[in-house]
Fold this protein.
Amino acid sequence: MKKYLLLSLAVLFIYASSCKKDDSEDVVAFDHAAQAIIDNDSLINYFKTHYLDTEGNIAEIEADEEALYESDTLKSKTVNFTRGSEEIEYTLYYIVQQIGDSIKPVEVDMVNMSYIGMTLDDGEIFDRADNGVNFDLYSDLIVGMRKGAVEFHSGAWDPQGDGTYTYENNGKGYIFLPSGLAYANVGSGDIPANAPIYFRIEMNRVFHIDHDGDSILSVYENDDNGDYFEYDTDEDGRPNFLDSDDDGDGTLTIDENPDPNNDGVPADAENSSNADNPDLADYLDPNVPSK
């Protein structure tokens, strides 16, 4: 169920409370960097000993099947993520079995996915959603799933009249995560601490949403490098897609006419109020007087 993909604050609180240091004892900080190396070795070993069968399932090599490690379908992606006080360089892996004929999500979109979650060491299923579940990639998922899900295109959908949908030509494949991009040294439910995990997913639909209610869809609140989390016009510590006053001028973005035609795209935003900077949209210009 969805609970395993959600980053549970309750679990983290209980873990932190139970691991409080006794003043008379020395506590050794967990070495996340070392664990990242261990996890990557485990993943590589898995890829060398498993293959994709004709049904698209992963199975252990028995004869001369082509190992995942040798397959062109296995891709990798570097993700820098802070654990403790240290930024760790992790590698996640993914396999796209079916590309999908619609759009890819970005990390601030909502998606509908079907999935099965399994532990790497024994293939035990700890979670599944066969009929598709909606997730906000930014807030609902562990970081590894957020980073991996954006590699899959969505497909076409057909409402069945009973609140369910059928999907076709949607993106399908696998995402493999080191524990540091999943539940780290805490674990969750049936997932042990320091356990690499993987998901078989289907990317059914992508929804562009507005996180901060400023009338601009979050997908359009990124900088010139495509970064959503570092794009912070007023440098107040909140990226624009979470900031209802992007330029910090005391006037809400939605009140500075950022989307005159109401399509969620700020390309037509009003930008004529500051003669000294006529090309900058009013909602990004702190020198535009309040209206």
